[in-house]
Every structure is written in C-alpha cells, then in structure tokens.
UniProtKB/TrEMBL annotation:
InterPro entries, A to Z: aa-tRNA-synth_I_CS (IPR001412), aa-tRNA-synth_Ic (IPR002305), Rossmann-like_a/b/a_fold (IPR014729), Trp-tRNA-ligase (IPR002306), Trp-tRNA-ligase_bac-type (IPR024109), Trp-tRNA_synthetase (IPR050203)
GO molecular function: ligase activity
PANTHER family linked: TRYPTOPHAN--TRNA LIGASE, MITOCHONDRIAL
Keywords noted in UniProt: Aminoacyl-tRNA synthetase, ATP-binding, Cytoplasm, Ligase, Nucleotide-binding, Protein biosynthesis
Localization annotation: Cytoplasm
Protein residues bound to ATP: Q11, P12, T13, G20, N21, G149, E150, D151, I188, K197, M198, S199, K200, S201
Described purpose of this protein according to its UniProt entry: Catalyzes the attachment of tryptophan to tRNA(Trp).
Protein name in UniProt: Tryptophan--tRNA ligase
Placement of sequence motif 'KMSKS' region: 197-201
Main localization (coarse): cytoplasm
Record EC number: 6.1.1.2
Coiled coil: none
Designated gene of the protein: trpS_1
Organism annotation: Amycolatopsis ultiminotia
Length: 330
C-alpha cells in the first residue's frame, strides 16, 4: 500500500502502563496507524532479561495487550502480537549477535546503567544482548521508521550499523531504519518530584498515575502534586516544573494548547488547575478502564486476536529470516 512501515514494542513488566508511557509513546502508536503500516509487539522476550514470575508475566502480557487495544490500537489496521509467538525474533537475534563486536555491545549505556544497578555479576547475558534482540525486532519487519525517545537513540544506531554491516557483507537484505521523531509527545514528570521523569521503577506510588488504578486515587495524586510557592499558572519548566508538568498532562488529555490553558487560568490558582485536571483525568480513565476490562473478561478472544496478529507478523518475519539464512549459507 506504499506506506512506510513502523515497528514498536513495549515490555509487559508492570500490571499497568502509566501516564508517561501513554503520553510519551503509546498514544503515538495509535496515531501512526493513520499514516503508516504498523507492527506493534508486547516484548516478553525482552522482559525475561530480568527475573520474572511465569504467572505474573503471562498475566501482564495479556493486560498489556488489553491496554493497547483499549487505547485504540486497532488489530484490523496493525499487526498486534506477542514477541515470543514469533520465533523468528530469537532466530534473527542469534545471527545478529554474531555480527556484533563484544566491545560494541559493551558500549551500550543502558546496559551499563542497568547492570550497575543489579551488580554486573548478577546481570544476565540477555540483558547484555538486549539491544541486538531489539535490532532483530526491527529488521525482521524491514521497518523504515522506529519511534524513538532519547533513551533509545543509541540502540537504534546499533540497529542501523548492524543492518548496513550485514548488507555490505552479504548483499542487500535489510532496510536501514530511520528514527521517527514523534510530534506531540509529552515527557511526563513525577508528580512528587517534577524534575525526574515519571517512571514505574523510580517514581514513588504518589508520583505515578497508572492507567489501571482506581481513578479516585489518580485524582488525589493530581490534587496533591508538588508545585511551587508562587500563584501564577504559567508554563515554565525551569521555574515551575510541577505546574508545567500538570499543564502538559492537561493539554495532552484535552487537546487544548498550553497557551489556551494559561489564558483560562489567568487570575486563578494552582488549586483550580489541579481540581479541573483531576476531573479531566478521571473522565478519561473510567471509560478506558471499562474497555480494558471488557478485553480481560474474554481472555479466549484476546488470545485469538493476538494469535492472528502473530500470524500476520510471521508472514513478514519468516520471509526476512529465510532471505537472511540463505545469504549466510544455511
Ligand atoms: P519506565 O521508565 O516507567 O520503566 P519504560 O522504560 O518501559 O517505562 O518506557 C516505555 C515507553 O514509555 C518508552 O517509549 C518510554 O520512552 C516511554 N516513557 C516512559 N516514561 C515516560 C515519561 N515519564 N514521559 C514520557 N514518556 C515516557
Ligand atoms: Na525505563
């Protein structure tokens, strides 16, 4: 159909996605369906680079898929699938590992950060080769574009290098993907520490809005978000990090511009802003959670949707893997 192809994945490592995941990444997945041919996967192979409880992992994989469907990932338009159901990911990953220098892999800063936290001896080899599996995820689908935030730039660069290296050595096999700089993404900050990003691993419970938590709880978190001692509702991330974060969230959820909001809150205080945003958030969360629940109420149907997505993904993945194997002499 002449559209550029996009691949993106998300790990099933929490019971719920949070507002940062949604406004910073997942919302764009939904929009990209209008302009691109889209492949989206729940990357459970990536999740096991750190220890996972099997029951919890399976539950979180389904919950992740249910949330993606509920926010508007449309299985008619996108191939929505679970990574482990497409064995070509692991197969291509091995081939690419054999194209990657040990030192080259060792320069990945995310591994250095994550393994330092766990202790280098305890970190798995899978955590080390994680970016190569990510390269396989992308190259299998001949993706032209990959939506990336700042934290993923180095990994995409490795993917591009591996694609070019393989193509040079064995003949053109892979599309070299470009970063897709997504417009309208908001970086969302911790409600209690608005200088740090909202994060499932680093934020305290009150700093984080989970999509599947009790909306009353979310409202309370917004109303008790940390702001400064001033009064003026103004977007100024340097001087007013907390207020600016609330304005970003408000703007993203309502499609009102930050400038509109600043005007609307002229002469009003932070309390008014928080009260209104809490309402906006609750009104958005309630129907979203109902949709998620309806997917989770019929797990058999959910599994069928995911199996169909995997089938569709495999048609492309298997063709790429076959071409790769032939090049190598398999
Ligand atoms: P976390 O940081 O909570 O562990 P992940 O690293 O799993 O979240 O991120 C999944 C996706 O969500 C990535 O595309 C990431 O860039 C995006 N993301 C995570 N936190 C935020 C945030 N606070 N603001 C914007 N985007 C975010
Ligand atoms: Na993270």
């Amino acid at each position: 159909n002449g559209r550029l192809r996009v691949l993106s994945g998300i790990q099933p490592t929490a019971d719920s996605f949070h507002l940062g995941n949604y406004l910073g990444a997942l919302r764009q997945w939904v929009r990209l369906q209008d302009t691109h041919e889209t492949f989206y996967c729940v990357v459970d192979l990536h999740a096991i680079t750190v220890e996972q409880d099997p029951k919890v992992l399976l539950e979180r994989t389904r919950r992740s898929a249910a949330q993606l469907l509920a926010i508007g990932v449309d299985p008619q338009r996108s191939a929505l699938f679970v990574q482990s159901q497409v064995p070509e990911h692991a197969q291509l990953s091995w081939v690419l590992e054999c194209q990657t220098g040990f030192g080259e892999a060792g320069r990945m800063t995310q591994f250095k950060d994550k393994s330092a936290k766990q202790g280098t001896d305890r970190a798995s080899v899978g955590l080390f080769t994680y970016p190569i599996l990510q390269a396989a995820d992308i190259l299998l689908y001949q993706a032209n574009a990959v939506p990336v935030g700042e934290d993923q730039r180095q990994h995409l660069e490795l993917t591009r290098n591996l694609a070019q290296r393989f193509n040079n050595r064995y003949g053109k096999t892979f599309t070299v993907p470009e970063p897709h700089i997504v417009k309208d993404t908001a970086k969302i900050y911790d409600l209690q520490d608005p200088t740090a990003k909202m994060s499932k691993s680093a934020s305290a419970a009150n700093g984080l809005v989970e999509l599947l938590e009790d909306p009353k709880r979310s409202a309370k978190k917004i109303r008790s978000a940390v702001t400064d001692t001033g009064r003026e509702v103004r977007f100024d991330p340097e001087e007013k990090a907390g207020v600016s974060n609330l304005l970003s969230i408000y703007s993203a959820l309502t499609e009102r511009t930050v400038a509109d909001l600043e005007t609307a809150y002229e002469g009003k205080g932070y309390g008014d802003l928080k009260k209104d945003l809490a309402e906006v958030l609750v009104e958005w969360l309630i129907p979203l959670q109902e949709r998620v629940q309806s997917y989770l109420d019929d797990v058999a149907e959910l599994d069928r949707v995911l199996a169909a997505g995997a089938h569709r993904a495999r048609e492309v993945a298997a063709a790429t893997l076959a071409a790769t194997y032939e090049r190598i002499g398999f």
